[in-house]
Amino acid sequence: MKVEKYLIWLLMVLPLPVLAQGFAGMGTKAEGFAMPRPDPTFNFPADHGPHPDYRIEWWYLTANLEGPDGTPYGLQWTLFRSALAPGEASGWDSPQIWFGHAAVTTSGMHYSAERFARGGIGQAGVTPAPFDAWIDDWRMAGDAFEDLTLTATGAAFAYDMKLQAQGPLVLHGQDGYSVKSAHGQASYYYSQPFFTISGTLTLPDGPVEVTGSAWLDREWSSQPLAGDQTGWDWFSLSFDTGDKLMGFRLRQSDGEVFTSGTWIAPDGATTALGDDALSVRPLATTQVASREVPTRWRVLVREQNLDVTAQAINPNAWMDTTVPYWEGPVRIDGTHTGQGFLEMTGYE
Amino acid sequence: MTGAGLSALWSYWRRNPLQLFTLVAGLALATALWSGVQAVNSEARASYDAAAALLGEGRFDQVLPRAGDTIEQQTYVALRRAGWQAGPVLEGTLMAGGRSVRIVGIDPLTAPGGVGPITRGGDAPLQSFLNEGVVYAHPEVADALAGALPQRVVPDPGLAPGTAITDIGMAQRVLGRPGALSRLILSDIQPLNRPPLAEIAPGLVVQPAQRGADIARLTDSFHLNLTAFGLLSFAVGIFIVHGAIGLAFEQRRAMVRTLRTLGMPLRRLMVLMAIELAVIALIAGGLGVVLGYALAASLLPDVAATLEGLYGAQVSGVLHLQPAWWLSSLAIALLGTFLAAAGALWRIAHMPVLASGGARAWAMEAGRRRGMQALAALALLLGAVAFVTLGHGLVAGFASLACMLLGAALALPLVLDAALATGQRFAKSARWEWFWADTRQQLPGLSLALMALLLAMAANVGVSTMVSSFRLTFAGFLDQRLVAELYVTADTTDQAAALETFAARRADAVLPMLSAEMRLAGRGAEIRGVRVGPSYSDHWTFIAREGAVWGRVARGEAVIVNEQLARRANLWPGDTLAIVPGQELPIAGVVGDYGNPIGQAVIGEALFRNLFPQETATRFGLRRDDANALRLALVDDFGLDPGQIRDQASVKSFSMDVFERTFTVTGALNVLTLAVAGFAILMSLLTLAAMRVPQLAPVWALGLTRRELGRLELLRAVILAALTLAVALPLGLALAWELLAVVNVEAFGWRLPMFLFPADYAKLGLFALIAALLAALLPARRMARMPPSELLKVFANEG
Fold it and tell me: Which of A18, B5, B246, B746 lies 20 to 30 A from B416 at CA?
């Protein structure tokens, strides 16, 4: 058996967080690991750093960018932590495994890359203050969490960006305790959705100067999904009014869905959206990598008078990583206009 | 009709069981030798492939240290953080249960895809690999390893022999090398804007992916050698088969004529004969496969020992049979049979229906082809010269050998005939004139067997000359190199330092063994630092030298290289060699370095310590006439374990042991080939004896007694064997020369002086004569005891 098979095995059986599918182990028992509890109190900047007693964690940044001529681009930078056992140890004995995903999306192309690292030897890790998150040569770092530089390289792309927060951190769910199923599975979840971003994209056609907005998600847990949940559709939308919406729909094997979200006012004030307050429905699918993936959605939040469609800028934004998924920028039309990011997992 | 035809064909073999036996035995032997050698080769190759596949050597570029065998883990992390996509590997050997196990540590997360195989067992292989420190080992070493390590050891037949694989962290712990790596495997896909290697890690170099693994290239020559022997044995076997088939078909001419006049179509007859041969070939081939398996299974442990001793290559000592091997062995048996029968079948096909079915001696046919044969022999011998003068490389060397042997074999009947004709010219009496003429008349019938004998004897002379020359040279080389009375090994660098101080007061000279692994002239090599003194300058002999070699080396102004490096990189005195980047030294001398597969450069101790401050000597040679007193002092006063001390004699005998094992296989094949040739002569004489009654009857009638006829038969066999020996000796010496001067240089990188061993040749000659005598004994006895009535019948039939 070859190593790549093992990697797939690892990604299938170990909890790779972004691929929130029941079969991917997100619903597996979390023996020995700490569990999120309601009513948390976060302690920053320490909580920007890793929580090795929890099984999974991520630093997940997406950005909608625009070139000098108005061309839209999407950008992703993600660092995942996945623990084989709770706690930390030095050297190769560390039970922590790190993964990185990076991507750049244009209307016609989607470039992606991934990295793997063991904890304990310095190849990947996160320190909270000064903030530094890295895997190999990919890095998100700065003296403060509000002021960061961001770099990544792949075989066909590279980027070098500056991020500046223009608003406060946002806690999802109840003070950052985000419930993921009717059975009570949950995670700690906060975001910084108010980053402005600027820098240089290096693409096969040459460098492009870009500016835009970015959204950073922080989430950690040990068993965030129920065993019967097979995949998710996740939205981060920024409207021209300055309002923002985080919403997700978790699909169950019986066809039911669990929906949840957060409405974020321009000043950062949040309104939790329960299972019936938010509705997301696919309108059209695209054949991507031999499977049907929804690339046009209707998003409804009645109490905010929101009724919009989210259309993928590039329907082929397929992450061709060890375990693949869809992740790319969307354009918003309807009662509100704007842009955002869409992530979809578990489409077979 | 078909049934009748088959039964007629079969009846021939029933009446001539000896010929059938010859045919089957010859074919089985040929197939056995060929397929046995192939089995050994493919087992060894599979072992190399498994070893190479483990690290993806054929597919991926690798990063290696420019000097030494260690990459700091921090350097690896620095490279990763600069964007270099590479996976770390730590390799080392561990003694477990009396055998050395190659421990390979990898990081499965960063190892490029396709590096493996790792494991099969277990419910959670990666979890156990990364987090539980499980060691996966080839089944042959799993038990020994389990006894030596506290970790869980899981047998995995997919691994290379003698190998165990585990997580890199576990490997560092087991090998006692924390923070150390051996090499990095580079992924195919690297990111944009990656800084150059020299900027991040100036001490490392990239080695491009090799199409064949290092070890496979090193051992290629060895396998080519075995293959050549297998081919030679096969050729000898096919000579026998050709002889047996030719004789049988010739004797069946009458039957063929009868069958055809009875209405059997030629086409069907040919098909039946082909089927008959195919059945015989398959049966004999099947026997050959069984014999070949037994042969391979008995040779393999020696081959494995040789390969490990000579090249450090791990080969499984257990044979794994693959269906492809069975099938190819049967195919080669079929092919060989039809190759041997082609001529006979062709003649049957072109024989007019009513052509004489009489006993037209099949031998006469051979006589007519003499002109063609002479031309072919000449062409082949010229080809042999052309290959050796114009060509280069191992294949040209072997091609030349093949041409020479085949050409000589084809020329043999002509040479023998000329010699016999000379004998005939000098014959004084009618009886002797008859003897010589009759011997010449028999020659074509015996020539195939004699050719086989020639090849076997020449191979024997050639190979034994090569091996014995090698042995003499090697023993002389050991005397030159092993001058210290005692060799001691320290456990730690601290002990080494104390030992050196202690020994300096008691020994006449202390010779530290300093060495570092390096890449020289683009190849893996070793640098040795020597404390120049009479221990070196009085003993080492140079193949080539320039100036006062030792003085220049001692001052750090020049370097000595071994012959392997000199020949492979074409570096000779007057050229310069880059020891480390930026440090070029002129080459002062070239020394022989037998038994060492890699290149070596020798520099002075001061320069070595300057260039490689991290390398310290833990082995020392100690000079003192009273070695025993020194040994006692080391054990009693210094507290060295007696196991850490070896004396000159034991090191020498160990080295000679390795040498002898190396040629065990060659020796075994050599004897087998000779045995096959002896068998060929016996069979040829036996079959000929039956045919010769009509020729002997008139001589008997003229007054020669049966006893005298029998004695003459014996004499004839001895004379033919002696004449063949006379041709085999120079041929064998030519073969030895080619092996020493052409094949060895290509295969090992050294040229050996050729020595002659007349006593050995005399022994071989005696053996050949006795074999011929023994082979002729049975037919001669039969002649001597043949009832006169049998002889009289000849005349009765004539009427």
Answer: B246
